[in-house]
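Entry for 2'-deoxyguanosine-5'-diphosphate complex. Fields follow.
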Amino acid sequence: MSINCTDKELLEDFIKANLKESRYRHSMGVEEMAVKLARLHGADTEKAAFAARYHDLAKNFDTGKMDECVRKYGLPDKLAGNNALAHSKVGAAILEHEFGVTDPEILDAVRYHTTARKDMTLLEELIFVADVVEDNRTYSDLDYYQDLAYRDLDQACLEILDYTIGDLTSKGRQIDKDTLEARDWVLHKIKETENGK
Ligand code: DGI
Ligand code: FE
Ligand code: FE
């Protein structure tokens, strides 16, 4: 199976032109990690690689360009001026509208890679986790989170969400509703799995 995309070469040129070097390296790291996690957890490796490679394609847009895209693609107004949340939604819109990507699973994996959300598919959850645990990340607990992601994707997802929610809270920042709902959803999923044992 090959992924629908009007021009893969143009898409490659796009990330090379639009990503800073460190962000490009991160994207390759997420691709490698996503493929590894897909093999371990039984997801489609080709879709995982594609979604991971392009997940941050809009990350380095300046606020003017990001806001223009928010308007152009009819995304919610609240994303204007909020690059941290907008880059994933804009990235998915660009893949769909400029590069003819039609696979809804890939588009959603990119769209929700920052916030996560409830009822995520395996691919969405895997990209959310791979983004945080790829090899180029430099935080001190990286080994712990990588090992957890290899063994138990749901638990890794929960602990990442808990960390993010705690971090944003301590900084007095807003937490997206999708992030809060994702945390409850994955916690419930883990409890149900435990009860079923
Ligand atoms: O783009 P990356 O740096 O690779 O990672 P990302 O897309 O997960 O973005 C992480 C940033 O998003 C991080 O600085 C926290 C910020 N952020 C802002 N609001 C929220 C949020 N992250 C989550 N999960 N939920 C929020 O509501
Ligand atoms: Fe991102
Ligand atoms: Fe990323």
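NOTE: The chain has a mean pLDDT of 96.
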